[in-house]
Specification:
Elements lengths: L22 H19 L8 H31 L4 H30 L2 H7 L9 H12 L4 H12 L2 H13 L3 E5 L2 E5 L1 H7 L5 H17 L1 H22 L6 H6 L4 H12 L2 H15 L4 E2 L16 H15 L1 H12 L3 E2 L11 E5 L4 E5 L6 H20 L11 H21 L4 H36 L6 H15 L4 E3 L4 H4 L13 H20 L3 H11 L5 H9 L6 H11 L3 H7 L2
Helix pairs in contact: 1-2, 1-3, 2-3, 3-5, 3-6, 7-10, 12-24, 14-15, 14-17, 15-16, 16-17, 17-18, 17-21, 18-19, 18-21, 18-25, 21-24
Length: about 600
Amino acid sequence: MSLSNLSRTWDLDTFFPGGSASPEFAAYVDSLSADVDALSGEAGETPRSPAEWAAKLARVQGVVKRLRHASAFVSCLNAQNVHDRPARILGGRTSRINAAFASVLTRLDEQLLKVADAEWTSLLSGGELTDLAYVLGERRQRARDMLPPEQETLVNDLSVDGYHAWSNLYDLTTGRMTIEVEEDGRPVSISPGQLANRLSDADPAVRNHLMTKWEDAWAGEAESCALALNHLAGFRRALYAKRGWDSVLREPLEINRMKAETLQSMWDAIDASKDRLAAYLERKRRMLGLEQLGWQDVDAPVGETSAKLTYDEAANFVVTHFQKVSPRMAQLAGKAFQDRWIESEDRPGKRMGGFCTSFPDKRQSRIFVTFSGTLGNTATVAHELGHAYHQHVMNDLAPFNQQYAMNVAETASTFAEMVVADAALHSARTAEEKLVLLEDKLRRAATLLMNIQCRFLFETRFYEERAKGIVSVERLNSLMEGAQKDAFAGLLGRYHPHFWASKLHFYTTRVPFYNFPYTFGFLFSAGVYAKAMAGGPAFEDRYSALLRDTGRMRVEDLAGRHLDADLTTAGFWQGAIDLVLGDLDEFLRVTS
């Protein structure tokens, strides 16, 4: 497959023509809202037979599917143009529908709890609901750990203009930011997303200058960001206390279907490998000719072959290397590029970051990135295409069984990155190109094992202090810098104290502790990748089976079934770290 003349903007009209002014979308949302209201009106009516349960759950899952579809459309509208006010209004409406539907689910869980144990076993044995046994059992158990349904419903309703509103305020505040820099001797205003791409400039003086601009810009928004962050954390702590939960990690661990022992074993293995990561960073410092590495230097390119790729070149690069390990994944990626599933244009007014979201009604995905031609951008595109493939293999499953957790969601995406990076390394044409690709792999490892760890350490410590009251901007800066020093083993000469303000993940209300799942996914995918390398053509079927089970298993069981691995011990994690750092000795040899 050869891709050329690709569009840099996505096609949303396939779903609802007219963007935020679409009459079709307005009608879709009206119908969705009416169906949620109807389910709310039936909230107290407990089904009396397996057939009634099947009918009710079919209606509920139909709303799950359509609500994902509507929410995906709104998220795309808001990401492509942060100044689209009607899209923000639509976002408010879909948030209210989501909150109302969350109350429907709360009532559903109450009804699940009312089913006697003997009847429950019968209900899930050999009938229409057997396929949903894991998910329904999980909902039933989680309901036991919540407040009474009336109180959980009130929490859902109040969250729209409280909890979620603080996240929306952060999006609005940072979305309107512009940062003035110089280009070709003249001042220009760019978005934070555009400046973030420029922070990996080859010139250390430019990187240092842009880092100062970046820090200053976020310092100017720090009070507003701190207000949002404090109140988001305050809401969570208050709610956890009412539920009787004694740890802020209880919710993220349960959402990610994993044990605390698994998380701790992962971090222990990473800490035990810091000397190897330090050897990489020290060698990179020497290569860049710096007295000390700064935060802005960790992602800096090395070598002479860091020339930028065109979007068409990047697309062909990704598809070609996907083909070597998974023809099905390559086919889907080619379709995504050709059918305009990807918004990649580098322009002002876009939201920061990247994401992949699914449109269940059409069985399609959409990918959002800002592509400026770097290897990092290409890796991001591959990452998001991994998400799209994950959804693709689950499209025929029941909506409840498609609801996989973030940690395993990151497995498919980081696996896709590994495929591209490793295949590119093996096909390098020159020693210089090989060096660049070696360093790129190690740089990604440092990001997932050190940068993500600093986010986890910061957030853990921030929640401890938030229990005593509001945490000031100055203290947030101090906590962040301390977390960065610990995660990077004190190796950097300049840190990023306002990282807590600039990183969107701290402000999402969808998943608390939006950090450790990335590291989990990175290392878990290394285990999957090892199986791929050993499995040959048969791997595709095994990989699809693993991905399809991600919505209906806890991660320890998933690893046991598909990888023969025990995640609660350091052995699996150390093996994964050995794999992702397997190129370190070669890197040190060729750069000595």
